[in-house]
Amino acid sequence: MVSSPYQPLRSSNGQIMLLILHPAFQLDAPIRCLLEPAFLSSNPDFEALSYTWGDPGNGCNISLSNHDFLVGDNAAAALRRLRWKMMNRVLWIDAICINQADVDEKNEQVPLMQKIYGQAQNVLVWLGEPTDGSILGMRLLQNRMASVGWHQWKIDQTYGKPTLPFFKSVKSSIAMMNRSRLIQEQINGEVRELLDRPWWRRTWIIQEVVLAKNIQIICGDEVVTWDTVASLLKRLRMTQTEVQVFGVKLSDRNIFPDRMYNLISGYHQQWHSTAGRLELLDVLYQFRILECTVAHDRIYGFLGIIHPDVATKISPDYHLDVPQVYHDFARTMIQVTNNLHVLNCTRYWSGVDNRTQQQKAYSVLEQSRYYDIHALIFDGPDKTPRRGWARLPDGWERIPSKKSLFRDNGDRTKQSSEWSPLEGQQAVRAEHYIKQRELSLGWSKIWDNLCRARVVYGVGETTREHQLRNEKELLRQKLSRLPSWVANWECPSRWDPKPLVNFSLSQPRYFASGNTTAELSDHSNPRVLSLKGHIVDEVRQLGPAWHPETERPPVSRKGIDALVQWETLGLIELPDCPYSGTGGRTNALWRTMIADYAGAGAADSDDWAYIETWYDRTGWGRELPDMASRGGNETATLEGEIRELEGVMHTQFHHIRPLPNVETRELLKHPGMNFSHNKKKYGGYIKRIYAACAHRSLLITYRGYMGLAPWNAQIGDKVAILHGGKTPFILRNIKGTEYFSLVGEAFVYGLMAGEGMSEAFGGARDINIL
């Protein structure tokens, strides 16, 4: 029998293993550690590591309590960097301090992670080993500007300067402007790369950081605090303007991939200011795009940051199949919360095109691999050609070096030459420098086992990647057999609409089932969800689904044919219209477009003019250009034209809702005269329209109601009010049976405040969903 460094733990008493990391003077010295049990109740001193497991690679043998123990490449790199020279360092690392071969121990230790990360003196975020560029990014975060300049010079000496020499740029004001921006982009791009490392896509990081008292971000030997990132981004945004219209960002010029950082920071602040009260479904839905090695962790990975009333009812069990975990979770949530919020998370996913967002290279050094950085370019008509960045033909690569070398990857010899394939060719159109982040055809961005990024051409699928893809496909097949009412947390789709319910609000936006609570009825089939409810209507007509290509709300409806068809369909007069006494179908339509809140939260009746302005019947809106495909000079011109849109909107708004005919003194006090007020309110409404309508269809029922249905709804589907549900739900009868399948949540104007509970819609019945 092979001996083990582990010993049984009394997990129920809060006992854990701590890792005693022995000191070393040399980075490559053997790693020696000791496992030592400790009770959390005794408040031991330790730091907790948050890192990416990733592909273990060849692994590294360490000495663990006098046993040879294999750890992954990235864990070994972290241990080497974290060692002190003279003293032991006490750490907690999940891959080592939990016996990963003992499923029962994992089940018992996972619930203790809330206390582990909450009690740790520091949570150490290990981003991985450094690159030449990442050192630049970390020193910018540290605000060591002299060191930034020195390191940037060293990089230029090794890999070649990404800009023309000053004396060559000074001949053109455009060239000078682009040179200045590119130098700044070289520095800022490395911060972007740090924010794009694999750590930011790992499920477990959320609770590890949210729970932390103090957070340090580490890359190689460089260390910064968590708040340093926010400080830098705030500083940069104060000095570099962003192109916005109605509060919607149009250009990625100064955007950092900091969405995950901001989300985690928000939850961290909320956790520490509300005595640890986060809504589980809110967290699960926000972070469902993250990656995890084991699909169980899409649930278990968040149990440490939710209310104990819920967390204590969900016991991690890695013995169970993933579909069973998701099934049990959905039923438990209904029983514990007495509402149907978990049903608002179900989305149709099978067969949906799940193409991920295009990868981006933020490092200027890596971008220069698929560009000739001294090619002949021009900025527009009648502009003198100049030297600058131009994309290389397919398959060609620049080898970063002090003197540029080029090679054709289609050439079997892979010989390099100082000759560029663009040399001697006609000048090509200049691109805005942020366009450089988009990889050329055939190029991929990959990370090694130590989390360092590089761009490569023609990389194929590795054996490990092929194995993981097959495992994912097998899991998808299993999950396709889930009951329709069970949310599939493993397979988010790019066509997932935003939930109508805000899970974190103490006062709900809607209360379609009044003050009822969800009660599960007994059923012999555990796959069946049996609830009390009312079938109140049936879908008679559906408008086309609206699937916007970007996450940027359109500034007007111009050019969106699907939404024009919605209006045509919604305004058809029907006999016995339920809206005849409440402003008619025109009122119902604009309120449907924003999924208007019920009760006191409803939009002011005068706000119809903002939606009418957005309908853009006169064509005041214009198609927004691709800011990333223009040269610097054209971009500056377009930015001014785009900002004029706000003034055009303001004028159009007053054509639709004229100002009152009153004395000048009173007129100046009128809210409609306030340009900033109108701009901000209009911006708020276009964001609400996007959130409500994106990836949904307009529905019309036989009773004449209109609303928003899941994009996959069908004519003949039923509109149901289920007890404990804040919104109506769309159900589909399973042919030849008494059962229904759940299509998804719905907004139905006129049924969002309990109206469907009246006797006019009949009494409650058992509704069985399979």
UniProtKB/TrEMBL annotation:
<dbReference type="Pfam" id="PF06985">
    <property type="entry name" value="HET"/>
</dbReference>
<dbReference type="InterPro" id="IPR010730">
    <property type="entry name" value="HET"/>
</dbReference>
<dbReference type="Pfam" id="PF26639">
    <property type="entry name" value="Het-6_barrel"/>
</dbReference>
<protein>
    <submittedName>
        <fullName>Heterokaryon incompatibility protein 6, OR allele</fullName>
    </submittedName>
</protein>
<dbReference type="InterPro" id="IPR052895">
    <property type="entry name" value="HetReg/Transcr_Mod"/>
</dbReference>
<feature type="domain" description="Heterokaryon incompatibility">
    <location>
        <begin position="46"/>
        <end position="208"/>
    </location>
</feature>
